[in-house]
Queue: 3 jobs
Job 1
Amino acid sequence: MGSIYLTNKKNVWCPGCGNFAILNALIKALERLNLKPESVVLVSGIGCHGRINQYVNVNSIHVIHGRVLPVATGIKISNNRLTVIGHAGDGDAYAIGLGHLPHAARRNVDLTYIIHNNMIFGLTTGQVTPTTPKGMRTRSTPYGNIENPLNPLLLALVSGATFVARGFAGDIKHLIYLFEEGIKHKGFAFIDVLQPCVTFYNTYSYFRERVYRLEETDYDYTSFKKAIAKATEWGERIPIGIFYKIRRETFEEQLFQLKDKPLVQQEIRINLEKVYKILS
Amino acid sequence: MSCKSNRNGERRMSVKSRRIGLNGDTAVAYAAKQANVDVISAYPITPQTIMVEKLAEYVNNGELDAVFIPVESEHTALSAAVGASLAGARVFTATASQGLALMYEILWIAAGLRTTVVMALGNRAFSPNINIHCSHDDLYAVRDTGWIELIAENVQEAYDLTLQAFKISEDKKVLFPSTISLDGFILTHSLEALYVIDDAYVENFLPPKDPVYPIDPNNPITYGPLDLQDYYIEHKKLQDYHFENSYPRILEIFQEYSEFTGRTYKPIKTYGLDDAEVAIMILGSSAGTARFVAKKLREKGQKVGVISLTLYRPFPVDKIKEATKGLKALAIMDRSLSFGSPGAQLYMDVASALVNEREKPLLFNVIYGLGGRDLTPDQVEYVFKKAQEYAKEGEVKELKLWVGVRE
């Protein structure tokens, strides 16, 4: 494909995996934004999606299960001139690492958080996750899931996220637009992507029949009330697009320590010689 | 199966068994089902996942009358297990590597509150970098926390030790949680033929749990309240005392199970030690490879032996002292690292167990197999050769050797 944002690492996702759409849309969004590869940091978690850091030619770190947001937050605060993009699966973001989502959202750290939401644990071969629909048979719920699924968009909204969107891996063009907008957004951008898992939960036709773009309606994404109502719409028709977007001061903008330049470019103001003298 | 002698001439079981094929994960799940557990809480992680999937299937099929909680993290898996155990249930969970690391604070709580949780570990390397294959990092991470640690060498042992773990943990002279370690992929995913006890006989060995001080609304008690300078140290001394005193009881339960099934369980296994001059000590599935090489070398007249452990905590100090008597050199092989320590974990254990002995072998540490790297017979032979060299020269030239590493 020849993009400067792509590595030549052999891709091992299943043919037809929704991850390909997310990867390609990200590459296209980075191209459109014309970001220098060395100024972008990609943080990925555990699961099939996690390999994305091997395929995108930017700085990257593959962290432990569920901890994309804390690591991404640390990177952003240390060098707020970097563009930091977190990738996590639904197992990562909504099960083991859910505790971090509300806090990153209310803090409004300038990050983009892209969730590869396939509603199943794909890498461990098909167990129930917090977004698996009720009644669904999985390897860990062979007679049907008895738990209600989580509504991630509602959670992000009520936690104070300033950019809340949903994409579908079957609509790459739209996904490119969401990623571009999300990365451009100053503040915490949360993008949940409906991602079919061709091996354990193939939802391509299910979603294709149901999704519609909010951008093709007269929906107004600046209204919190409307966003809440829209986020509860799920059934015969499933909205994708930007649900909510407002500008609020970011966490970093409020840190006086970062007023002049990023932390990493500041000199250490401790006189180490003096410290050694005191200690010796 | 009636009374027959097996290869070692031991009397074969007064209990009915059958021979089936299972991998390590399904064998552990089968044993947990036969133990008739009440609560299973777990989170998927390779290479353990099959265990809990299988148990979910048993529960959903109605084959096992238990509650299966598909929790949202390993921290929750063990926390839920602690709660269920204190409420009086027989509890099973399983994990590996990072899952175990996330459980770490609850490991101490499960032990300190004297729960009887049984947990299987599909041994897997810690990150970074991400690796799903076998190291013993997780097994060693449990060693200070107050859990009984059992280590399987093959699928049969994984099954047998799971049944014994419930008996050990719930015994009133023990009351500590247990782990059963089985090498990730090498055992968790390998199909082996094994004997499983017929369901009707299991209860003869493992009766239902008789909980001690369960949570009871009619007789309310508090678990784990604030305990500061005034009493904390006394409580820890008591815990330590009881943990050490669980050792003789564990040996009795091993003996009981051996008589029950005809398969011998002892805290340590020795091979060729009657006349061995040098030996290897090793854990898990690699012990078989070490014995295979030792047998070949012994046929050539070399006096070599192998020691492996079935019980890692409490550490069988007396048996190790006894087994190492007369050895000139002992290679202690670790499938893990303890950065900045005098040696890796098993090495430090053995070294401190032998430190005050008047006669003891020269000890050295061998690091092998990290992240699933195969241990080959050639490498084992090299380790024996080094041990012989050190024994002959009377000194250890290199305390820490690595085998199977590209230079």
Note: The longest strand of chain B covers residues 17-23.
Job 2
Amino acid sequence: MDAAVVTGKKTFIRVVEVWVPGNDRSTLEFSAGLYGSAERFGAISRQMCFGLGEGLPGQAWLDGRPIVLKQFAGANFRRTQAAHAEGLTCGIALPVFAGDFLTAVLVIFCGDDEAHAGAIELWSNDPAASKDMTLDDGYYGSTADAFEFISRRTAFRQGHGLPGLAWESRLPVFQEDLGKGERFLRADSAIKVGINRGFVLPCATRGASTYVMAFLSAMATPIVRRFETWLPDADGERLTRAGGFCEVSGTVPAGDDRDFIERGQGTLGRAAFSGVPMVGESAASEPGLVGRAASAAGLDAVVAVPVLHDGRLRAVVAWYF
Amino acid sequence: MLVNSSPSINTRRTLQIQDVGMVFPTKRGPFVALRDINLEVQRGEFVTLIGHSGCGKSTLLNLVAGLTTPSSGIMLLQERELTGPGPDRGVVFQNHSLLPWLSCLDNVLLAVERVFSEKEGKAQLRERALAALDLVGMSHAVAKRPQEISGGMKQRVGIARALAMEPKMLLMDEPFGALDALTRARLQDELMRIVATTGATVMMVTHDVDEAVLLSDRIVMMTNGPAATIGEVLRVDLPRPRARVALAENRDYVQYRKEVIDFLYTRHSHVEKAA
């Protein structure tokens, strides 16, 4: 087992919620959420809905691109007091578009207490303006500013660095030890601030620009306790595990071809079927490999995020808490 | 609703390199030196190309100079396609390339005459050449021949010759690579002063990390060859004028330097490793 593996630590992501268009598609309604200890925030959120351009989910819907909101007060955010009461200081909204149409908005909340080391970065490329992918915005928690400084001045080309690789492949990209690899181009700065793992998720946005979200995890506060990437077969009927990383058991290998999840089966299968992020509150009771792995590692919940490109399913990412 | 689809002209954009590739025929078949090169350089910008030997940075500079023709892609200088060498690009090589039988003044004059002789008289041309030599601090040696001056001075004359043509772009291929460390430092400082005075747009090839960070607005880092390309671009936001002594202790400078070293020696050490 990797010596760096940790158990039972607080995760960098504290709250996850999913907002979906209502029946008449005029508002976003609460679909699912994982609130952990922020239960009061969850109770308020469950009662809410957002119109186009309203609040963080509505703004992401309107803009057709991810948003990193680092300060709630004075911004287009409707739950400031409740968020502050739970120590949540940053919200990230990831709209999921299937072509021009929104399937859902995934919203993530983080805090910035002393133990909240790590970073979430939004990288983007506008093909009309540049061949480079540059930092759009980022949230660095208590991470030293040296890393942010260099991120803001670095531009990646397609196929280079973790953001560039995700951009090129349109698939999630993961690196277990950023200090050892050649793919992570800001390794020196990352190591200094304790960032050791990187995971980059391509975003399904509207329009020509490409966005990828980089989750950079510090040993003290992993982004999530385990994550996996699952890939659909040629017919899009089955998902098989491509790999991942677990803070409890280390590297997660690719799954056996026979150990698949069918479209519509369990939290991951429903995400693949609907193109909507799904929340499974009891990961251990998920079918197949998901449930077995969660039981073995003592994991509580799972969030499945579909990765779409041009309206087609490219992968499903599973985050375990 | 009608949408105006005419492309806007970016007046600040001096050089555009679009999807450029370079393949050399060899006995063993085609050798892909460069692939997918895309780069824009803005007016007044100082851009350095850095990478290991054989990464194609000089090949790229030669393409921009018009000394070789790309196998694919297009290059535009102020929105006009580059099809060959021209006085709109002043080139300074590591080897000064001065004609040994001409004085410093005549070496510069030769270039000046090529560009301005149709519009200006002899006296004006001479004035231009003298002004360029003055700009690089070589007024005292106008009558000397190349063999009578030091390597650093020769390089100053080379820079004067390139600048005297009032090029749209100054292209420099490791101009200080053959000089000793002290002379190189002095010439780097001189170059910064000249660029500040003239507002020149510069593309420079270098192996030297400190030189790249000191001089550049952007550092273009190239992957190893064959089939080299641009991997990463680092924007250097250090205020100008830059003083080398003060920068040595500047936290940002140290950070930039580390990033370039990390790119060259950790992620793209000379033997290419699979990403």
Note: The helical segments of chain B are 57-65, 104-116, 122-135, 151-164, 181-198, 209-215, 244-247, 251-267.
Job 3
Amino acid sequence: MTDTTTAIRVSGLHKQFGRGKRQVKAVQNLSLEVQAGQVYGFLGPNGAGKTTTIRMLLDLIRPTSGEVTLFGQPVFGNPNVLKRVGALVEGATFYPYLSGRQNLEVLARTGGYYDPKRVQAIIEQVGMADRVDRRTKGYSTGMKQRMGLAATLLGDPDLIILDEPTNGLDPAGIQEMRLFIRELADKQGKTVFLSSHMLNEIEQVCDSVAIINKGKLVREGTVKALLSEQSRLLVEADPLDKAQAVLSPDWTLHTNGGAHLTVEAQHDDIPHIIRKLVENHINIYEVAPQRQSLEAYFLAVTQGEDTHD
Amino acid sequence: MTELFRAEWMKINGNRYMTAFTVWLFPIGVATFLTLALIPALASENFRAQVNNAPPTWTVQTLLPWTVINSIITRMILVAFAADVFAGEYQRGMWKNLLPRRPRASIILMKFFTMSFMLLIAFFATCLLAGLISGVVVRITGAPYDLTLPGETLSDFFSSFALQAFVAIISALLAACFAALGGILTRSILGAVGFGAALTLGEQAVLLVLFFLGNILNMPGIIALYQYTPGYNLSNISSWATSGTPFLASDMTKQYMIDMSAGASFAILALWLVGLIGLTVWMFRRQDILS
């Protein structure tokens, strides 16, 4: 029986390269799940194992152990399931001596789904209509990325894997790509697995996120849940030193020498904090949730040692 | 499969400089060389007299290119061709785009097929052009160049053509297989050329190597291993076809060799080809694609 609601299921994935002293554990006991129709962000610092994981999803690299299923079917030794996948891995590459259109034709014919009308429609969709008949040798990185995106869409895949798709794009191109990715999920019902260093982009586009570091999963969840996990409140009160003394037994506080306190607390704690301050005759001017960015969260979790095995 | 073939053809033939200098070089080279012969045919009385004294026949002229094709230089050129076809995918980082779209084995096998098909077209076109342009040159000199031949001569021609074609194509394919294997192992065009060239040249020198090895180890019988190399078996098939006897590399080796039939040689060559292609596919199927 195939599971169609889960687009990607990775369980206990390990990959090590080399042996003995040269052994590198690129991915260790990685497990995650991506629901169909989601935009799923895959984050991690350089060398965290993101691209190795993506290559294992595409059966380009065989794992040392563990399993990957796409739409309920195992990937390894099952090329048919990959027909439902379009991928842009580690920068777009092409035959430099062929034009963009010829490259797309070669890839579509390799997949057995060449249709000139569809190729033309995709070329227009990615904004390459006026440059597609030039040799790719002369393309800029941004143009290659656009063509790379076109190549992923050729087979009308259900799952689209994009590894750093905005590399080399200008700000307008980045915004365009962001809208395009959202549209793929919202209007066309595609699942998008997006690996990126652009944390702002991930935060705006993704429904769920996984963060990996040193080959291990650090956190996984919806963007909202992850950001509320370590929420902070900004408290402006007078006298501040008295407020600090009242709150410090129950919450972790930070001061920056100004007129506020930063309290590490959940949104639900707000009434308790206010009550404590009022009971102690402290004047309250402001209690506001401080929105944490994904970037700050990412840095906090990847710099710690806390990993989910 | 037709789609995959067209994709491979587009990729290989689209690399114009590479194919021009390694594949289309043969028909273009022969056509250019023979077309240049039109100049003395038109201008030199002496040349015309020579041709009229001993006018070449189309059967001889059409067979002539096989001598060039079946040479070690051609094999080296084809090593370079195969190296680009197989290892080029690594160097251009294209495997990651191709492999999710088709099973690995079918892509590799289609590369072998497309490459062989392209070589066949190039070789046959070379022979055809040699026959046709020679005809024009000979006719300009006023000598006869008759296409009609007695039945026996025609059948001799076809047997000879088939044999020459077989030997040339099999040796070209073997050189290409060595380069393909080198491409998969080294993941670089240069590595594939080096590996393919070393094995192709090494295969030529194997008799000498076995002879010295036999002397050093005091095991002269080791030379019999030569009978299992592609080179020996290609020569053996030629020998059976032309003189009806098995091939003897040299009188010195005679006592250690068995009389190998043409059928056995065909079987050994088939084993070499299937083995090399199979090994390439097997290694590629197990390989991690990191580029």
Note: Confidence is low (pLDDT under 50) at residues 305-309 of chain A.
